[in-house]
Design a protein that fits this description.
about 375 residues; mainly beta; 8-stranded mixed beta sheet
Length: about 375
């Protein structure tokens, strides 16, 4: 009889051990399903988030003892769960990003998330949950087009999630753009123009490349403390003989009335992305009021045909164009807006016309005669 009792106890202990093992099974891995809001070609075509490692992104998560889908407004008791962890594309799963070092769901309670992209961005990045504020302190944007980031962030999610709340597709998040996107188009006014101009260099000057960004959920997004971080950092080469030359000449492929988009040549990251800043023109000194230098400007270098013999050009001519316009509020570029400048070369003048969109296109109207 004792043997039977002992055997029964042993079986019971084995069953209890088996149940314990089931409870300790590792929960599912945390993953994301990101999109970008009207993204530039530098990051995404359409809203698909780019899958290359350049756009790995960083995430914060906070834990609360709540059921999934609890509204953020009720999410008051929180504990940090992920601190600026890097997430990478999972090649085996379409549109899914998981932790570079995998992160797993808690066995109880739920999480809310915030994040920024790319993970490699230069600066100090924080998200303060109580005020729902993202801060990028001393962010630095490269003045080399091919190396420039498309800085993005997503605000803390409006509801909380657990491993059962995403249907296996990852937490859906939408990145917003913190920078301004500039596009430059070159147009010929008439047949005469095609025989007169050869553009050899286009650059932005007076660009501030270091600043601090603050974004409050459902509030203001502001850039402050903008500076030029060092010598030669305030120039961005848009067109050079080394990377892209726009040539208007007899027999060329560019016809009058055709826009030529010039944004650089790197296949992945070819948009001109800058920290939002002033593009106000300068003002001359008046009486005791000192002159104010211009903010950001566009400098175009070109060769001009002299009509003395064939193919004779006056080399190294320059024109400096202001980048303000009636559609640009307070002469300031804004986060998440796309500014498109069309520069038209005519027989006797160069005209510039800017426009704005969301990624907002902005196209101000400006006419600049050749001096």
């Amino acid at each position: 009889m004792k043997r039977l009792v002992i055997a029964a106890l042993a079986i019971g202990a084995l069953a209890a051990c088996t149940k314990s093992n089931v409870q300790l099974e590792q929960p599912g891995e945390i993953s994301f399903q990101p999109v970008a809001q009207k993204a530039t070609k530098a990051a995404v075509d359409g809203t698909d988030y780019p899958t290359d490692a350049t756009y790995n992104f960083n995430v914060w998560a906070w834990w609360g003892d709540y059921d999934a889908a609890t509204a953020l407004a009720s999410f008051t008791t929180t504990t940090p769960y992920i601190a600026n962890g890097t997430f990478v594309h999972r090649t085996e799963t379409a549109n899914s990003w998981g932790g570079q070092t995998p992160y797993y769901w808690p066995t109880k309670g739920s999480l809310v998330f915030a994040g920024y992209s790319p993970a490699s961005a230069t600066g100090t990045f924080e998200y303060e949950l109580t005020s729902k504020t993202f801060t990028a302190t001393d962010y630095v944007q490269s003045n080399v087009i091919a190396n420039a980031n498309d800085l993005m962030w997503f605000d803390v999610t409006d509801e909380s999630y657990d491993q059962n709340g995403t249907d296996g597709k990852g937490v859906p998040v939408a990145f917003k753009h913190a920078l301004s996107w500039l596009t430059f188009k070159f147009n010929l006014k008439d047949d005469e123009t095609a025989a007169r101009w050869t553009i050899t260099d286009v650059k932005l000057v007076g660009i501030e490349d270091k600043a601090t960004f603050t974004a409050v959920k459902n509030g203001a997004n502001t850039w402050t403390e903008a500076v030029k971080s060092g010598d030669s950092k305030d120039e961005i080469s848009v067109v050079t003989g080394a990377n892209y030359t726009v040539t208007y000449a007899n027999g060329g492929t560019v016809l009058p009335g055709t826009d030529v988009v010039v944004e650089g040549t790197n296949a992945r990251n070819n948009a001109v992305l800058v920290i939002p800043q002033s593009c106000a023109p300068g003002t001359p000194a008046v009486d005791e009021t000192p002159a104010v230098p211009a903010a950001a400007e566009l400098v175009i270098t070109y060769n001009l045909k002299t009509y003395i013999g064939e193919n004779n050009y006056l080399p190294g001519q320059t024109v400096t164009l202001p980048l303000n316009g009636s559609q640009i509020t307070n002469n300031m570029w804004e986060p998440g807006k796309h500014y498109i400048y069309t520069i038209t070369f005519g027989a006797n003048e160069i005209l510039i016309a800017p426009k704005v969109a969301d990624w907002v296109d902005v196209e101000p109207e400006i006419e600049i005669p050749v001096q």
